[in-house]
Every structure is written in structure tokens, then in C-alpha cells.
Design a protein that fits this description.
Layout lengths: L6 H8 L6 E7 L7 H5 L2 H8 L3 E5 L2 E2 L10 E4 L5 E4 L1 H14 L10 E7 L10 E9 H7 L5 H20 L11 H10 L8 H5 L5 E3 L5
Parallel strand pairs: 1-2
Antiparallel strand pairs: 1-6, 3-5, 4-5, 6-7, 7-8
Helix pairs in contact: 6-7
Amino acid sequence: MYPVNNIDGIKDQESQLEGSHAIILLFVKPSDDNADSIIKKFNYLHYKSKQYCSIYLIGYSQYFYEKYTDAEDVPGVDKTTWQYSDQCFIEVCEQLEKRLKNWTYSGEPEMIILQNSSTLSGGSIMDFRNYNYIDINYGISKGYIDSFPRFMERIINACRSETEAQAVVNQANRKRLSGRRIIEKAIAADTKLPSPIKDIINDKWFFKSYKAAA
């Protein structure tokens, strides 16, 4: 869980990490409905994700050094105080919208899943090829997601499963992690789903899988 507030900062952080793993960009503004309950999970998610996935909080920073006049304090990891800025959040969304032609921010909590595939042949630190998008609130309203905490628990467990599976495969034969497979595993872990997984994945308001340049 990292409060890194721009794409270059994410790349710098990822360059210090080892191994092929999932990257989750989490879009949650403090002003969103029920955002407080999500922000309170930051510390837990930081330790739960470990080396299995990197979670980046869009619009957050350990400290903005007065760069953004609208910055507000929020609880961070290890009882520290972080900051959040709507100005920063919008800047990063605009960066991503230019980078990802098929994505625009919905206005509510969501996540984008991609990969750090820098250890693989032809890979990159932020590998956006076949990136995946989840609209969290829409999923909750439709019953695809029972709650944000439960869904994140399943997402991280699925990332762990995929990462550990790759670790036992010969390096020369490794393929990029599949964000779609991670999401399918997370959804399948819920035994109370209202629809078959295939129908849920095909709901384009909830889940989208795009192809983009690396």
C-alpha cells in the first residue's frame, strides 16, 4: 500500500521491487460515500498485500509539501498521517486517461489492475497490456461484491495464488500475470453470487478488460 501521487512515482517505487507481481491502482476519495470505512483498511491492506501485489492510492501522499492547497490529512500506515488532494487525484486521472485510451474515471471508487512484468522477457515496470478495470460501487449495488473489505481480501489472496504459481515455473516459460484470472478467482471465492461468473464478467459496467500498449 503506497501513497504515491503520480505515474513517475509509481514507476520509481516499482523499480525498487523484485519479482513479477500485480499492481492495483485504487481510486477512493475521502468524499466518496463510505470512504472512511475504506481508509480505515489502509494499514491492514498494506500488510496483507506484502510481496503479492502493490496497491497504489491515487491522490494520496505521505506529505505534499504545500504543493496542493486543498491537501487534507488522512490516517496512514503505522499510525502515521498521510495527505490527500483532489487536485492531485484529478491530475493522475488525466495522466491515465491520456495513457489508457479506453478508460475514464467513473467518479466513484474503482480499481485498475495491471502488472509489473519487468523480470519477464519484453516486460515493463508498469505493464498496461490487457489491464483490467473494476467499478466497486456498481459491483456492490448489483450484488457481485458483498463488501469492499471482503472483495479486497479475495483480490489479494488471488494475487498471492497467481504469484506463488509463477514462482514454481521455469523463468524461461513464465507468462505475464492475468488480471482477469485474478478477478475471476476473487469473484469465484464468493459462494453467494446472484449470477454465474461468466455473466458477471460480461457486465461491462462492472468489469472491463482492455488491451493497451505496454
